[in-house]
């Protein structure tokens, strides 16, 4: 009953009045004389009621809403590889006089020094003209990245500043959006060039919202570390598996890396 009262609602008076028009049953109160002499000593007055109608009030109830099922948090969330900063190369291994190409996360990128902005830039390693690798180009005398194929020149913002084959008195085709090259957000941390792997303009200011991985020890003056760059012809998963398997060193690197002699 307690549960019924909790979830039930009594109908408004108008609704109850509508439902009280039909009696459920009737009880007859007509007086009869008894043949017993004892009962006849007491005289009963005749009842004014001949019938008594018993009416049950109608109660309007709503079905209780089914309990909401508790949903467990989604623990199978996929890792978005393209929503994080990645280290590209130590600054000490870069040459400001030439562009440097590399492949990261399947992306071909080029790192070059923009002397006008005094910053390292990371571009998509393909010229928008004929898709020639910009890493095979050069830095011209004005500090622009020049394509090795037709000499198109780009500034640090990815805008094309020169198309040698275009007439000077013709339309400014070099300013067309399709003549621009993709630019990746980049920064320097721990003397390493980092980049955000997306050229979408919405990530232009991603550095103000999310910064590269912070390693406190690398900021300590008393902490010594060394950085270097090395190209390897396989993915990170093979490298990690190899580094986590020290038992192969004395066999696979015998005579190269100091290790105990095999028994």
UniProtKB/TrEMBL annotation:
Give me the Gene Ontology terms describing cellular component: cytoplasm; membrane
Keyword presence, Cytoplasm:
no
Q: Which InterPro entries match?
A: Cholesterol_7-desaturase, Rieske_2Fe-2S, Rieske_2Fe-2S_sf, VanA_C_cat
The record places domain Rieske at: 85-195
Q: Tell me the compartments it is located in.
A: Membrane
The record's GO molecular-function terms, alphabetically, read: 2 iron, 2 sulfur cluster binding; metal ion binding; oxidoreductase activity; pheophorbide a oxygenase activity
Looking up Pfam families in the UniProt record yields: Rieske (PF00355), VanA_C (PF19112)
Q: What class of enzyme is it?
A: oxidoreductase
Note the superkingdom of the native organism.
Eukaryota
Name the predominant localization.
Answer: membrane
Keyword set, alphabetical order: 2Fe-2S, Iron, Iron-sulfur, Membrane, Metal-binding, Oxidoreductase, Transit peptide, Transmembrane, Transmembrane helix
* UniProt-listed Enzyme Commission number(s): 1.14.15.17
According to UniProt, the name of this protein is Pheophorbide a oxygenase
Protein source organism: Helianthus annuus (Common sunflower)
